[in-house]
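subagent[fold] <- orchestrator: predict structure for attached chain, return tokens only, no commentary.
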Amino acid sequence: MTKSNDFILEVKDLKKYFPVKKGAFRKTKKSVKAVDGVSFSIRRGETFGLVGESGSGKTTTGRLLLRAIEPTEGSIIYHLDKEYDLLSLDKNAMKEFRKRAQMIFQDPYSSLNPRMTVRDIIAEPLICAQDFDRKTITERVKSIAAKCQLNIEHLRRYPHAFSGGQRQRIGIARALVLMPDFVVCDEPVSALDVSIQAQILNLLKDFQEELGLTYLFIAHDLSVVEHTCDRIGVMYLGRLVELAETESLFYKPLHPYTEALMSAIPAANPDEVMRPVLLEGEIPSPINQPSGCSFHPRCRYAEELCKHERPEWREIEEGRFVACHYAEKLSLLGVDSYMNVNV
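subagent[fold] -> orchestrator:
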């Protein structure tokens, strides 16, 4: 049994609704339910993955965890040097908290200020913290730049002079220069070539081992997630539908949506037979969500109950959570029903 003090972060019933205003008087008619009742915990020192289709709420969840955007409802508790109830922190307390939690952005092109040198970009968090003198800032910048394989000459240049992989190294250096405890990695390798992806992932792993970092790793690429993450949460239409250890999730998913995602992974052996699960239709609008289980219009196992009753987010095995009425029934189908390889 995992103790509560083993977790660095605990999220309960987190929601973010964006109002949709219409008419001459701009009245709120409906809301986009970008994140709709998400609950999970992240252990110290682990890499926790979030996967799902575009529009499932992964990036919004990551931004909520840093209060880059304000949640509509819910609870976000950090266990760092002390306990932080993130949603109750005032401006000064938030400034202190931001030294402990940082973010690596998806696009290494738009996330860097083109009018600042690399040295100034990396030093900016230290300057904003107002806890460091000029000499310490210079030493910190040089040290983290060297660890990110950026030399002294690079620090004098501007972002346009670098490739995508080098720019992402700059973004990583900026995020880690304050030596945080928790880092949100928002698809940090999705815009990079495959060979560069491996270098960046290895760099993040090295920093995790050296600094004891905890990552929330948001991604589309399931092969990257399998290689990188200790546990994975699967999101669909603003909700978590399954959460499990990486090996368990890939070997035997218990939610029909996870099953479809895993079946779409290309087989490494060309002689192996692919058996993809084809989902009908598109992901529904977050403004007009289906009743009951939000996945039921695309689910091949859906029954009448799924159309009317929203499944409960529940723990069906130790450390394994799923939101499906028939998860136990699906688990009896066996691993061969889910995988795209012969078992």
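orchestrator: received. Logging for downstream: Residues 114-175 form one domain. The mean pLDDT is 89.
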